[in-house]
Amino acid sequence: MMKIISILLCFALLSCANKSSKNQSLIAVIQDFSTNKNLGYVSFTELQNGAVRVKVKLSGLKAAHAFHIHEFGDFTDENAKTAGSHFNPYKKKHGSPNHEHHMGDLGNILADHNKKVDVEFLDYAIKLRGKNSILGRSVIIHEKADDFVTQPTGGAGARIAGGVIGYKFSD
After folding, report:
1. Residue 65: active-site member
2. 4 lies in a domain?
3. What is the largest CA-CA distance in the chain?
4. Catalytic residue (one of 65, 101, 137, 159)
5. Is 74 a known active-site residue?
């Protein structure tokens, strides 16, 4: 019996020792739906305090655009309708990230005069692991800014670009 307990303890210690101290990261490479052109990426990094750092690096966009995580990583429909609705596991109303909102409501992104978006922010709702993980879901960029009022989509218009959220290469 003692030998079995010792073996189990060794496996438990090895399991803990082999876990990476690096934060988990996910990434979505964003493509324009009309041209299939690569616009850049959105990365998600889990921090020790439970927040997720969202880093958006895109080019080729003008003005403000709604920025959402959708339920599915499926772009088999040319208009990306197969990506489903905004990710909303807690059945909340659509809204601003500063108020009640779907987990997938990440607000708006704003392109500069060079048509670039280079922004980083923290989100405390999205998760990279577990039952409500965003892994395998999609990032969708909409044609217009989110008004944070119109239900259930924020009046953001058509889906113009997006990418499936997957594991990020870690060196």
Report:
1. no
2. no
3. 70
4. 159
5. no
Residue segments in the chain with a per-residue pLDDT below the cut of 70: 1-22, 171
Catalytic residue among 65, 101, 142, 146: 142
CA neighbours closer than 13 Å in the CB half-sphere of residue 126: 31
Average pLDDT, the chain: 86
Instruction: Choose among 89, 87, 57, 52: nearest CA to 69.
Output: 87
Report pTM: 0.84
Catalytic residue among 65, 101, 105, 123: 105
Question: Which residue range forms the structural domain that includes residue 86?
Answer: 21-167
pLDDT of residue 145: 95
| Active site (annotated) includes residue 102 | yes
Q: How many domains does the chain have?
A: 1
Residues above pLDDT 90, as percent of the chain: 66
Catalytic residue among 70, 101, 123, 146: 70
User: Per the domain annotation, does 120 fall within a domain?
Assistant: yes
Amino acid at 29: V
